[in-house]
Design brief:
30% strand; 5-stranded mixed beta sheet; 31 strands; mainly beta; 12% helix
């Protein structure tokens, strides 16, 4: 244990000692019959500490970095990590932290606490220190994104100076309002981490320790569990400036080429498996249309609920149906776990906004918040988290032409800063989704567990969607109850007065659970009435 005590003002200390001596002489000159007017009471110092940075990152070769410290009373430093040293400068009010070359073969961490004030009245600030070993740079060829793929038990870094891929924002006017560069970031934080099965103990093993920020890059290490996480950089007051989805999986992500030559991921964004037998891990994550940050699907196993199309006199089948329906609520409990993160996934009603950038700024600052529509806006164009028209009679160009995920429907395609896919991938447009779904339609059969489509060694799970109004009770409506596989497209609907986007849907036969019916597909269709505030999975296509 190393403890160093420093007075914040040497002159003040001298004046205090002189005043104490003078006071002692005064009392010595008084007779025992003299009584002082007031009894001298000791002064209590209530501590107040501020530091210029709460995070310090050293490279493998080590070095020194200086942190400014401001206090209002006597203060000391507390640190018991021997791999680093520190020195205080009384004149400048600083602490210089140093580290030698890291030869341990792994990252190392430590904390220096600045403590101020009398016992019982102290204030403290922690300075977290990290020294990297050889972190892998997640950005290849300078191409940044909102999602990075990582493996377990490894160390990484990525630049945190530009938002998303540094490209456009559609027509959202977000960049005009907030800028493209990430400015005034003070520290990194783990927003949430989770494994698909809802095991909150395992969820704490996705990210090992806390992410760190050195003014240019974010550094983090992964633990022993595959899963998903969101890491953010924050201003000094804790406001999130931007965040990134970390997709931790050791399962190799392969590709599938459809009949038109488009190259697709073999799984939904955030999924940890593409095996039909691994139902929960194949779901991936859910996204509100146009947002970059994911939300968690149901952590429950799929529930095989037979359809109601049995003969009325089939008492056995109807009894099974009634029994299985009882399981539906347990399969739809909202997944709000956060692992060792600081923010639990939650839901709030979106603020009414009539023009861009609408709720886009708030959405960036609250990646853990699912933005629901107001109950009064149960239908029509207002069913959007981003912008709500003043009435249901008119569209607003800001809403229907926002292109939040980029302009991917024209000949000049671009991926926006809100696109949730990793570098080199993007959200598909309507025509591309049609091409993918038709390929599945022509080659797939329902998997043995009746919860998805197996096609040429790849898998499209049934996930259905999350309601735009009922985050708490309808995290995933299906879990085997509904028979649709959804995937968002980048295009919103501009043909009628509704705040909708296109979602491709693969639909199974209505009586797919009937043992007397073949397990074949029914149809591929587009639902152009998918509320923008709803959430669906994303299947990324190669740029």
């Amino acid at each position: 244990m190393m403890i160093m005590k420093i007075y914040d003002n040497v002159l003040m200390k001298g004046l205090y000692m002189m005043a104490t001596a003078a006071l002692a002489l005064t009392f010595a000159g008084c007779s025992k019959n003299d009584e002082p007017e007031d009894e001298l009471k000791p002064e209590v110092h209530v501590g107040k500490v501020e530091v210029s940075s709460s995070q310090v990152v050293f490279p493998v070769d080590g070095g020194s970095k200086t942190i400014a410290v401001a206090t209002n009373a006597e203060w000391h430093l507390d640190c018991d990590y021997t791999w680093m040293s520190f020195d205080a400068d009384l004149n400048s009010g600083t602490v210089t932290i140093s580290a030698e070359k890291n030869t341990t073969g792994a990252d190392r961490y430590g904390v220096i606490s600045v403590i101020c004030g009398d016992e019982g009245y102290t204030d403290s600030r922690d300075i977290r220190v990290m020294q990297t070993y050889e972190p892998e740079d997640l950005v290849k060829d300078g191409v940044t994104a909102n999602c990075y793929i990582a493996h377990t038990k490894a160390s990484y870094r990525f630049p945190a100076k530009v938002k998303g891929n540094g490209a456009g924002d559609g027509n959202s006017k977000y960049i005009a309002a907030e800028g493209l560069e990430i400015k005034n970031a003070a520290f990194a934080e783990l927003v949430w981490e989770a494994v698909p099965d809802g095991d909150k103990t395992r969820s704490t093993y996705v990210i090992d320790g806390e992410p760190m920020y050195d003014g240019e890059n974010v550094y983090f290490s992964t633990g022993k569990a595959a899963g998903n996480a969101v890491i953010a950089v924050c201003a000094a007051d804790g406001t999130i400036l931007w965040s990134w989805h970390i997709w931790v999986t050791d399962d190799e992500i392969t590709t599938k080429t459809d009949k038109n030559g488009l190259v697709w991921m073999d799984r939904n964004l955030g999924a940890l498996s593409a095996k039909p037998s691994d139902a929960v891990n194949t779901r991936g994550l859910f996204y509100q249309w146009g947002r970059k940050d994911p939300f968690l699907p149901s952590a429950a196993e799929f529930v095989d609920i037979p359809t109601i199309y049995y003969a009325d006199d089939d008492a056995t089948a109807n009894a099974k149906y009634a029994e299985q329906v009882k399981l539906r609520p347990s399969a739809n409990v909202a997944n709000q776990q956060k692992g060792d993160g600081v923010r639990r996934i939650n839901a709030e009603k979106a603020v009414v906004a009539y023009s861009a950038p609408g709720n886009a700024v708030y959405a960036v600052q609250h990646p853990e918040t699912f933005l629901t529509i107001h109950p009064v806006y149960s239908g029509g164009i207002k069913c959007d988290w981003y912008i709500m028209s003043p009435d249901n009679s008119e569209e607003t160009d800001d809403q229907t032409e926002s292109n939040l995920w980029g302009n991917t429907s024209s000949d000049v395609k671009y991926k926006s800063i809100f696109d949730p896919c990793p570098a080199g991938w993007r959200v598909c447009n309507k025509a591309e989704a049609q091409s993918f779904m038709q390929t599945v339609f022509n080659s797939a059969t329902l998997a043995a567990n009746l919860v998805g489509y197996d096609f040429d060694g790849h898998y499209l799970p049934m996930t259905d969607s999350r309601s735009n109004k009922h985050f708490r009770t309808e995290t995933v409506k299906s879990c085997g109850y509904e028979t649709k596989s959804y995937m968002w497209t980048s295009e919103s609907v501009k043909t009628h007065n509704y705040g909708y986007a296109y979602a491709a849907a693969m639909v199974a036969p209505a009586n797919y659970a009937d043992k007397n019916q073949p397990k074949t597909l029914k149809e591929v269709k587009f639902e152009d009435n998918k509320y923008l505030a709803s959430s669906c999975p994303v299947r990324c296509v190669k740029e």
